[in-house]
Design brief:
It comes from Dokdonia sinensis. This protein is mostly beta strands and 302 residues long. Helices cover 8% and strands 51% of the residues. It contains three helices and 14 strands. The chain has helices at 9-18, 127-137, 238-241, and strands at residues 22-30, 39-52, 64-77, 94-106, 110-121, 154-170, 175-180, 183-187, 190-194, 196-203, 222-237, 257-269, 272-281, 291-301. Strand 6 (154-170) and strand 7 (175-180) form a beta hairpin. The relative contact order is 0.16.
Length: 302
């Protein structure tokens, strides 16, 4: 940073232009865009990422490290949001407000990720108030959900560990990349293991510089689409089962596991990142159906 102060203005500007080290991102997920309003009804997130070229915990020229901090709110509802009778529900109402810290270490072909989350469920999450306001003020043709017997207030912590490995099968300008990414989560909100496979088609950077895995530090253009699929083996889900103190007025038992698939489109143009995903999951409780939603994101490097 100090060295750049002694560079000629043009050289310093060029360095900053080609190697941004920070990013802000906003992301919204919603099933209303797929003409439903149930299960994972909405999620809104904002995140900040910092890249460390010289390493934060590791001193390797072959790996790049990032720290990311974010906050988000998630909203979950049953199908019959007009009913006040829990006998009609295929899942409980649940809101979750959380913050997280994420560390990644990436090479050109693999990535390690460790993330710690802290959050709160219940009315304290603000999900009930926001969704009811949204239905009354914005979606004026629909009745506001009743939020009967929601998962109550509780504090939660989670630890996520993920490993990503990819293989470049053909090169740009229309590359093909295969990806394997197992994930494990342990905590009071949920516990699961989740293997995932994916394949990417198009102009894509190497892993440690790619929007594919939220890696920043370059403005090299990327534009590609991907297909991914996975299976989540569920051991515990507090947003369905309530916290372990057993004070939830209504809970359901989650399915032991579910499948999911997604179509992703991602584009990096100069300092701007654009991401669109369509995700579908099989049922997560015995009485539920499959569910689809869209994920939309914009991020800006600086």
């Amino acid at each position: 940073m100090m060295f750049s102060a002694f560079l000629p203005a043009g050289q310093a500007g060029a360095k900053a232009q080609s190697s941004p080290s920070q990013q802000w991102e906003i992301l919204h997920e919603n099933d209303f865009l797929t003409f439903t309003d149930r299960y994972y009804s909405a999620g809104s997130f904002i995140g900040y990422t910092k890249r460390f070229e010289s390493g934060l915990f590791q001193k390797s020229s072959n790996r790049k490290e990032q720290l990311r901090f974010g906050i988000g709110q998630e909203t979950y509802t049953p199908t019959k949001i007009k009913s006040r009778d829990t006998a009609d529900f295929d899942r409980p109402y649940a809101g979750y407000l959380s913050g997280y810290a994420r560390w990644t270490s990436a090479s050109i072909s693999d990535l390690f990720l460790v993330q710690v989350d802290v959050g709160i469920t219940g009315g304290a999450s603000g999900a009930q108030g926001f969704q009811q306001w949204y239905h009354r003020a914005i979606v004026t043709s629909a009745e506001a959900p009743e939020w009967v017997a929601q998962i109550p207030n509780a504090f939660h912590t989670n630890l996520m560990i993920q490993y990503i490995k990819e293989w470049r099968l053909s090169e740009n300008p229309f590359s093909v990349t295969a990806v394997l990414s197992p994930t494990g989560v342990l905590g009071t909100r949920d516990m699961y293991v989740q293997p995932e496979v994916a394949i990417h088609f198009g102009r894509r950077n190497a892993l440690q510089n790619s929007i594919a895995f939220d890696q920043i530090g370059t403005t090299t253009k990327e534009i590609f689409f991907g297909l991914r699929a996975g299976y989540r083996q569920v051991f515990y889900d507090a947003l369905l089962e309530g916290s372990r103190n057993g004070d939830a007025p209504f809970t359901v038992t989650p399915e032991s596991g579910f499948l999911y698939g997604a179509f992703d489109f991602k584009h990096r143009f100069e300092r701007n990142d654009y991401k669109v995903s369509f995700i579908h999951t099989t049922k997560r409780t015995a009485l539920a159906d499959g569910h689809s939603y869209l994920s939309l994101s914009y991020a800006r490097q600086f």
